[in-house]
Amino acid sequence: MPRSRTQAERLPLTAAQQGVWIGQQLVPACPLYNAAEYIQVDGPLDTTSFAQALRKTVAEADALHVRFEADSGGVTQLLNSPGEWELPIIDVSGETDPDRAALAWMRTDLQAVVDLQRGPLFAHALFRLGPNRYQWYHRTHHIALDGYSFSLIANRVAQLYTAQVTGRPNAAGRLTSLHAALDDEDLYRRSSRYEADQEFWQARFANPPQAVSLSERVSIPCGRLIRSSRQLPAQSMDGWRALAGQNGATWAEAVLALTALYVHRHTGADEVVLGLPVMGRLGSATARAPVMLMNTVPLRVPVNPQTGPDVVVRAVVAQMREIRPHQRYRGEQLRRDLRLVGGSRRLFGPMVNVMPFDYGLHFAGHPARATNLSAGAGFVEDLAIHLHVRADGAPLTLDVDANPNCYAPAELTKHLDQLTELLTSFTTVRPVSR
User: Fold this and answer.
1) pTM higher than 0.85 for the full model?
2) How far apart are CA 80 and CA 65, in angstroms?
């Protein structure tokens, strides 16, 4: 039976929240779980209407209004009614470099340490860079929202703002409650599907391959990371689509295949295991629920020195077809099943996070585009590769986060340069390799 909303209601955590909670407790004063982005609006913005739309959206997103309590029985979350919170509206239009000034403020705020037992879990700010240019900054602890949730929040704010400014109210599109996500997860855990998924993964990794890395050094996560970023040419997408179309794949599967090929060329491994973040939303109950549900599952990709890109793409397609129905089974649980918890034992090597969230934002007709500042992924065991693909005209962006105990900054930059070269080399249709 669905739960009813009451003030300070005590609720369990989603499995994804449990993982974030444990990680944060290992480094309580670390801001690595802060996820953040800013959205630039190209056009005039009614700041009063924007503030009203944002506050309505935040009130709907009840996962933002929890605090966490731990005792001998475990950890629970207390769901509170939305409280008061500040929205700074900061005018940097008079600065010599308004963009730089706004970004400096954001990066400082991104280092804020969130107290999960007290909150708040989020922060917003609105920057005026000029009469027709604004940037909306949004930071939230990853225990509350995953990457897909950020797109839900952004689209809801744009929808409510547009309805208010144009005078055409639109009640459709309300965000789904945290309760729906918890009920859906509870049903899954008690279902035969859960047991089938567990059997699938345990059989698939009965004889697991070694999780190879691009680094010769192995280290436990250290509570820090280093990042290097590149903007990719827009025609890269045409190349991925061409490679995918020749092999019955999606462009995202083509990117996964090229990344696996890159890892193989640097390690010689005949099977590459990539970490694959998945949304964990297979049903309509959670399609509009802004909450932390993301899961990371292992993707095994066979590859050898004679294997061409087309063959690797087809291998990824086959692997994805098999694992897709079983993606709700938690990666953390699989690691426990396989006794890969603790020390330097790994289930996969580099993680590849393709984020094609279709923001497509407009604020009363004025276009807006999003820029990621932090994935909020917390600990990085090895490498975390994030490809940001937006439908709003923002450039393709490749961010690589690394464990600094495994990679020096110069090494990370070299790998990013070489990976970028491979990803951008497929810009024409080629003969298909067999």
Assistant:
1) yes
2) 6
